[in-house]
């Protein structure tokens, strides 16, 4: 499944699960299972090619319990984090801004049938996705620079007039 960012409709984010998934309707970014659920999800950042932060809320089936581990192409696998069925399993995956990740995945384990029902409140911060921008002078700085050039030109003109007398 492919999506984009609210802040950048040209962004391409690809979601892949071990079972069929779909985008849930409504006002928040959500990925829902088609059928009983899924136990792993991979998020690939295509454009921009990396991200610095991913936040999400994992909801598992009622009556289930277990754990989740996260893995990025930069940091490797995380420790296992506990999941419960109250729907409030909020996680943030982040990295050093100088080394952003291009892929994040998670896998659940625990009960025999531990399945993720949905992943909601997905937030992605692409961070800076390229070289630092070239600073542009402020208008006031440009005005001061212009006045300085005008002063130099006037002083030069006055000096050449005095020298020709």
TrEMBL record:
<feature type="domain" description="Ice-binding protein C-terminal">
    <location>
        <begin position="135"/>
        <end position="155"/>
    </location>
</feature>
<protein>
    <recommendedName>
        <fullName>Ice-binding protein C-terminal domain-containing protein</fullName>
    </recommendedName>
</protein>
<dbReference type="Pfam" id="PF07589">
    <property type="entry name" value="PEP-CTERM"/>
</dbReference>
<dbReference type="InterPro" id="IPR013424">
    <property type="entry name" value="Ice-binding_C"/>
</dbReference>
